[in-house]
Amino acid sequence: MKINDFPEHIQPYLIPKPAGKVIYRCIGCEAEHDISRLLYTCPACHSVLLLTDLAFDRLKKTPGDTWRQIFDYRKMLNIPALQGVYRYHEFVGPMMPLDAVIYLGEGHTPMVEANQHLQQLVGARFYIKNEGQNPSASFKDRGMASALSYINFLVNSGELSDVLAVCASTGDTSASAALYAAYLQPAVKSAVLLPHKKVTPQQLAQPLGSGAVVFEIPGVFDDCMKVVEALSEQYNVALLNSKNAWRIWGQESYSYEIAQDFDYDMDHKVIVIPIGNAGNITAIISGFMKFFEAGIIDRLPKIIGVQSTHANPVYRYYLEPKPGKRMFIPVKVRPSVAQAAMIGNPVSVPRVIYLVEAYNEMAGNQAVFFTEVEEQAIMDWQLTANRNGHIACTQGGETLAGLVEAKKRGIVSEDDVVVLDATAHALKFADFQAMYFENRFPPEFEITPKKSLQNVPRLVRPKDLDVVPTAEKPIEGKDFERFVQRTAEAIAEKLGLPPSHR
Hints:
Layout: H1 11-14, E1 22-26, E2 32-33, E3 49-53, H2 57-60, H3 64-74, H4 89-92, E4 111-113, H5 116-122, E5 125-130, H6 140-156, E6 163-168, H7 172-183, E7 188-195, H8 201-209, E8 213-217, H9 221-234, E9 238-239, H10 245-251, H11 253-261, E10 269-274, H12 279-293, E11 302-308, H13 313-317, H14 349-363, E12 368-373, H15 375-386, H16 394-408, E13 417-422, H17 430-437, H18 477-495
Helix pairs in contact: 6-7, 6-10, 7-8, 10-12, 11-12, 12-14, 15-16
């Protein structure tokens, strides 16, 4: 639709102009830093940063009902810069000129309600928000759209040139970073660090296909992260991991979309998220808080962070009920099918601790919870979800297993409606599905396939057929007719199909 087709009272709001006063704020010493250059940690105390709009209060002057109309009407505009995460421009990058925004189709992923059978199995009403529908097939594109748009803005304004973007990854971050950097060629090039033999072939193919320089190093993700942190501190590179606060801002759009999809009614809503490097849960908490402060929603949903028993440092931290006695201790990770979450020392833990306290205080009660799940449950629930019409990744299986655990603990009530975060496309983790079906998981995964969930192809070749077609030698005539008839009969017998009486 064109601007003139909208109600007159909403027209002035639909195309946002750069506004606000955005700074980096350290969550450690609370020092404020200018955003004219890329920062990842506080120069004063080396703690992590959050982006803060010092003029945020101006957004509270617009009534919540007007904001809801702005976003709902903006949905109908045919302006690429406003079709992705920047539909919520005033909340994810108010100083960003629209001509700097990079839009590759990210955001506004489908929220699919589980079928009745699956909801009965779980004992809850729930949806799966399928982040695998993003352009690089994971939720990381939300943050990359923000981070690379800001880099594009700095390049266009002459603040940056010849940018080398780097990241450490378990797969999804590298795919997304390489894709968005490739779109900005030749001004931006990318290099990614992956743990050797710890990334699926599908995920490895993505940054290679986008032209990134790919390095594999010994160890796990945490080791890769230390190397890219050293690179960002000692060399002139742009770090694209979630330590980059611009990444967090873009990922806040996940919260805004869920609110909009429920017509901004967050009463009795629960969001279940895999923790991983802790950037996404940070972003989602922050996003809901901003919408609540601006009066766009009048209730904060429950948020449940999930970790595997093979990589559970955040869960362990919150086992101590008294905040003053809590101590964060990184863990040595064990192999996990939730590969993107296999992180023992998440870089955004300080943000999580800071924002969880603020979120609970704003909600007036405990509203953020943490659960842990077994590797067996992750695979079993992923396959069960996909057998009921979903395309959930292993992290989606982790959140579904987390919902089941939260139900057992009484965190989720019968009145709650739950949204599960399936962070990537199931095809990225097809190797784990194959390992399950073929019963070839190494012992360290601690997964024993259930026969009811295994599935393998079955060769059909009736023994009484002397001649069958091949790619090199097709058959014709009577031989082909007999092949078709006998093969159909064999399949019908295996399926128990009764003959038709037509």
